[in-house]
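Purpose: get a first structural picture of the assembly so the mutagenesis plan has something to point at.
Setup: two entries, given in the order below. No constraints added.
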Amino acid sequence: MLASLAKSSSLCRGLSHTLRRFQSTLVVAEHNNEKLTPSTLNTITAAGKLGDVACLVAGNNCASVAEELSKVNGVTKILLADNEAFNGLLAESITPLVLETQKQFNFTHILANATAFGKNLLPRLAAKLDVAPVSDIIGIADKDTFIRTIYAGNAIQTVKVLDAVKVITVRGTSFEAAGSEGGSASTENAPECSVKNDLTSFEGSEIHKSDRPELTGAKCVISGGRGMKNGENFQMLYDLADKLNAAVGASRAAVDAGFVPNDMQVGQTGKIVAPELYIAVGISGAIQHLAGMKDSKIIVAINKDAEAPIFQVADYGIVADLFKAVPDLNKLL
Amino acid sequence: MNPFDEIAVEEAVRMKEKKVAKEVVAVSCGPTQCQETLRTALAMGADRGIHVEISGDDYTAVQPFHISKILAKLALEEKADILLLGKQAIDDDCNQTGQMAAALLDWPQATFACKVEESNANLTVTREVDGGLETLKMKTPCVVTTDLRLNEPRYATLPNIMKAKKKPIAKKSAADYGVDLTPRHTVLKVDDPPTRAAGEKLETVEDLVSKLKEAGFYGEL
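Result (structure tokens, whole complex):
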């Protein structure tokens, strides 16, 4: 009995080894038709842990994205679908393309960034494949077991997926970015599919331009909360951010009060960041905010309320009036 | 009620107040306690409720995969023009159900909505995306999931809570919609997140700058 068990387990190992070779992963690349969204590089690293990595680039005049991706380490193949129909990267038009691609290549895993793009697209795709997707993974235990957070990051769940095809969004801050040089992927056209989408039209977007680094990929993030009192006072944080080459974020209170735009919100329902250094200014540290930043390497809190929960996660805390401390910090740096 | 769902109920009731919608039906899938959630929606202004009972082990293992199937069937049966959902539940943090229901119905979807306007059976929806906002125009029937900034949900007043007790709640089961609740995921374990080591309080901004220097930040950055 024992011997046969041992034999079957070694058989299993052999089988899983063979399976490993046939694992192939598709990453649906996120981009703005000119440049790859940086967190796609983190998703490629996650995909590389599962098997050979192919990338699908769908867009309108997006050849430069395929060019950029072809140099990324770990990517073996690029499927390019350049068509006006993909304008605005609507889930209604990209889903049929991914389904057609899947029909031809039979990927075992389909991944995308856990960003507004991936969160919008992948569940729609999963439903069409009749599989249950996994959102916002922070780790990969094996080819069908994934780790993710629930309850605003207050619990960590390990989930085994029983479906044959795994559809997954990846939390970028939990995986290293793949090197953007040294790869040599081949590019071919994605399978033809007739994209007939007369249900939704993309009317346009209003993207806030900034010279500072992108929030989710920045090495340093400075965030302001309700304590900033108004939008003008955020200028202090922008000045500080420019000295530290940092991105500027905000708590929900600061966004709701209209101090800064919504897309700067860090937290459970905003962006998840994990920079080397996070400086929280005038932020009390509600659970929902902590969910978005508590994996930062070093957390600094500046708050005049010594009892604020933010001090429980801060490596360095200063109990002081931010209107004195931040200008002082600006002078010293 | 999940905060994003409160926003969805509020938006539906506003549509009714603007005469965009004729009727608002509130739906909840889960154990008996869901009826309290439905009563809250009715007190906010929904006309009637549907409780799809899922209890015991089925409820523990139920996922957006199953709920979206129930909602898709139900939307067709009720001849709904707009299916409104929150963008995510704050317990499982999945952010999947609306998108999956839209796929099963082959309806267009507008996720993370912060503004919804109706004209001639079209919806113009502004969405919160990374870096800013974008606008979509969709034909109905369609699916909309709500973001935080769509509206501010009203409080149910006492008279409305009393009135809500008289509104009907139909009781259904997953089998009524032909949905199989076999789990597609197994949760192997749930752990506490790693705890952070206690930090220290510093007296001055100078102390902070020197700590950041020690940690190798300042200068390198």
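The beta strands of chain B are 25-30, 48-53, 82-86, 109-119, 122-129, 132-139, 142-146, 169-173, 185-191, 200-202.
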